[in-house]
Amino acid sequence: MAIDAQRKREIVERFGSDATDTGSTRVQIALLTARIEDLAEHLKANKKDHHGRRGLLVMVGKRKRLLSYLEKTDYDGYKALLGELGLRR
Asked: Model pTM?
């Protein structure tokens, strides 16, 4: 369910300002989105994994808070990120 190092590196390079920028809001949102997508696929196959479902809800809530923060601080970056990740909000 965790994303592998190669995929994480690609996400950081794509959404960060440089290859070591792992803490910016854009990168955190992109990493959470990748983890949410992976966990959603896992839950489709494992319907009774209620602990995993709770973890998914926690991640979705965290991503929502980060998106709200990004919307307040950098609206243009927020709109661009939503388009790149294919999120509706």
From this structure: 0.93
Sorted by sequence, the CB contacts under 8 Å of residue 14 that are 6+ apart come out as 30
Domain ranges of the chain: 5-85
Closest CA to 84 of 1, 70, 22, 54: 70
Tell me the C-alpha distance between 86 and 80, whole Å.
10
3-state secondary structure at position 48: coil
Q: How many residues does the chain have?
A: 89
Burial (Cβ within 10 Å: 0-12, 13-18, ≥19) of residue 33: buried
Distance of alpha carbon 12 from alpha carbon 88, whole angstroms: 22
5-85 topology per CATH:
Helix Hairpins (1.10.287)
CA-based radius of gyration for the chain:
14
**Per-residue pLDDT at 2:** 84
